[in-house]
Amino acid sequence: MTDGRKDDLEDLRDAIAACRICRDAPARGPDHRLPHEPRPVAVISSSARILISGQAPGLRVHQSGLPFNDASGDRLRLWLGVDREQFYDPRLFAIVPMGFCFPGYDAQGSDLPPRRECAPRWRSQVVDAMPQIELVLAIGQYAQAWHLGDRRAATMTETVRNWRIHLGSNIGPAVLALPHPSWRNTSWLKKNPWFEADVLPVLRDRVGKLII
Ligand code: SF4
Questions:
Q1: What pTM, to 2 d.p., does this model score?
Q2: How far apart are CA 154 and CA 2, in angstroms?
Q3: Which of 32, 63, 164, 211 is deepest in the core (most CB within 10 A)?
């Protein structure tokens, strides 16, 4: 990597770390300010060939600054066939959610969707800064909408089910759509056994080849 690119990535990381848009200039006006201090969590890598594109940090990740440092992360690592050391090695995995900061909770106590300010402000810049990425793991509907665009099906299940088409596409890096590894999707996994039987072996094989 050239010194110029290294500096560009450092500048980008610093700019994201300093971002306070959702606190100071929320897209939907002052009533929609982020109710806590922003803490952007994203791993931008100069060498990783796999980009994990998730939704937004939960409270635990907001507190620790470590993405997927929870039960969802444990399940995701199982799906990928990697241990924590490999997963948190920025030379192997870039981890860039659709919203970098914990968005807070809705009235029912569930995590809100990724902040709408984040992707338009940062995502293209971050993706363009990592041209070495060969595989994007698009986790959940927001990442799938951004990375697949018109290629996304009407439902998340159909989008995931079309994995062979997405992996075989010639448009940019290969994209594999995944459901969120949250416990909330345990019943989805039971209803869709083809995911563990057909998709996960291919995923593990791809990941194994891209992290050596
Ligand atoms: S969610 Fe994104 S746009 Fe909003 S403050 Fe955090 S880094 Fe900035």
A1: 0.95
A2: 42
A3: 211
**Residue 103 Cβ contacting ligand 1 at under 6 Å:** no
| Residue 19 Cα: closest atom of ligand 1 | 8
**Number of CB atoms found within 10 A of residue 91's CB:** 12
CATH code for the domain in which residue 120 is found:
3.40.470.10
Give the residues across from 135 on adjacent strands: 50, 174
Ligand 1 neighbourhood includes 102 CB (under 6 angstroms):
no
Total domains, the chain: 1
Tokens, residue 132: 């070495």
Atom in ligand 1 nearest the alpha carbon of residue 56: 1
Domain that holds residue 20: 3-210
The whole-number pLDDT of residue 212 equals 85
Structure confidence at residue 98 (pLDDT): 98
The dihedral of CA 89, 90, 95, 99: what is its sign? positive
pLDDT at residue 169, as a whole number: 81
pLDDT band at 149 (very low <50, low <70, confident <90, very high): very high
For tokens 């009407």, the residue is 154
CB of 176 shorter than 6 A to ligand 1:
no
* CA–centroid distance, residue 159 to ligand 1 (Å): 27
**Ligand 1 neighbourhood includes 19 CB (under 6 angstroms):** yes
